[in-house]
Amino acid sequence: MSTQEPTPTPAPAAKGGASWVRLVSDLGPAVVFFLSYQHAEKNGVPEFARAISGDQAVLFATVLFIPAAIAGFAFSYWKERTVSPMGLFTFAMIGIFSGLALWLKNDIFIKMRPTLVYSLIGLILLGSVLFKRNVLKALFSGALHMPEPVWHGLAQRAGLMYIALAIINEAVWRTQPLATWVTYNTWGDMAINMIFWIVNFALLAKYFTDADGNPLLDETKDKT
User: What is the value of pTM for the model shown?
Assistant: First the structure.
């Protein structure tokens, strides 16, 4: 399970290592969730957690996932000294939906949380392009500079990608065994996110500029 459904801010290393911080804060809790689920599936839910999670392995994993997500969020804030609105939103969704799942002993809230989060992120990105207030550009806070049409296209693609992730999540949890969904939700959507951003940044690197609009690649060539 991704902790903070990866937000569309996998910034290049321009912000002093922000990308690795976000990776650690997302991946750590996800690994805790995955390993906890695998342990409970194989050995049963430990007695200390049965009062909260009953005998459901996915709810036991959620019990351990919540403090891990809090630790990841705190670590991210400690290293970056800032919290993005999107990151705060996804963290709040983790608390609300995980809390509902444990309170009602119903894992449907855990399965549907990625659908809601990804759908809203996608709609926000697409809506910001429509109303010419590009949220994606704002999220980078000046760490990355590109021409406006390039930002426009990237936000559109990102919005559609997150909508697609929401649809895939619904298809997987509704048609596949729970174990398959847990594996996909932990590793699958994270891999799709990483591939999307790596490919897009590689293709868009030629458009990167400094704050004054000077192409970075041209500057690199001049220096060599």
Answer: 0.83
